[in-house]
Amino acid sequence: MKKIFIAALIGTAAAVSLVAESRSAEPQNRKAKPALLVIDVQNCYLNTIMSPEDTTLALPRIAWAVKLFRSAGLPVIRIYHDDVGQAPEPGDADFEFPSHLGVLESDPKIVKHYGDAFYETDLAKILKDHGCNTVFLCGLSATGCVLATHFGTYENHFNSFMIEDALISPNAEWTNNIEKMFKTINLSALKFVIENICD
After folding, report:
1. Is residue 27 over pLDDT 60?
2. Span 5-28, mean pLDDT?
3. Is the CA virtual torsion 190, 12, 176, 57 positive or negative?
4. By Cβ atoms counted within 10 A, which residue in 92, 117, 121, 187 is the most buried?
């Protein structure tokens, strides 16, 4: 039953994505001005409910993407999930990202209370203030907050791509399904884009 539910959820998500993309009312700029969104890679989730297989694969790739964007002078935006009134709370070690990811205190920070990182946050304003029209998504959960934020980009008129093998969810098979169904970019293609197209 769980597999049927997940398949139905992913199928519905794919349909919503196609409709949202076709309804985008604001014209997109052709030249990419990207930012990296590092979503919810918090110790409390990594150490409990996420797939160890996904985590082992994705964390070095997320750190690599952070380094790539930083070396190109492009924004790295760190996004945290906070369930108000529930542990961990901002400031706790479990709330934070692993230090080896390379995010900095100076990187713009969003604390969200819903799956979509655009919903009731300043994310769209931060991106516009940096002149960005394109976001590359990594982090967790591929079937939750990353996917919800991907959908949120359509409403907010940003181009959006998930980074292949830099996504994490509670089940590695679910992550693989998301990567097959949605716009993903592998690391070598991402490197080419950042180094050659985004000047």
Report:
1. no
2. 43
3. positive
4. 117
pLDDT band at 198 (very low <50, low <70, confident <90, very high): low
CATH code for the domain in which residue 35 is found: 3.40.50.850
**Other Cβ atoms closer than 10 A to 186:** 14
| Amino acid identity, position 25 | A
Angstrom distance (rounded) from CA 174 to CA 99:
27
Instruction: Give the count of domains, the chain.
Output: 1
Rounded to whole angstroms, how far apart are CA atoms 158 and 128? 10
Do 172 and 51 form a contact (C-beta atoms < 8 A)?
A: yes
pLDDT at 124: 98
Three-state secondary structure readout of the chain: CHHHHHHHHHHHHHHHHHHHHHCCCCCCCCCCCEEEEEECCCHHHHCCCCCHHHHHHHHHHHHHHHHHHHHCCCCEEEEEECCCCCCCCCCCHHHCCCHHHCCCCCCCEEEECCCCCCCCCCHHHHHHHCCCCEEEEEEECCCCHHHHHHHHHHHCCCEEEEEEEEEECCCHHHHHHHHHHCCEECHHHHHHHHHHHCC
Task: Give me the domain span that covers residue 17.
Answer: 2-24+31-197
Residue 145 phi/psi, 5° resolution? -70, -35
What lies within 8 Å, CB to CB, of 88 at 6+ separation is 42, 44, 94, 95
Which residues pair with residue 112 across a beta bridge?
81
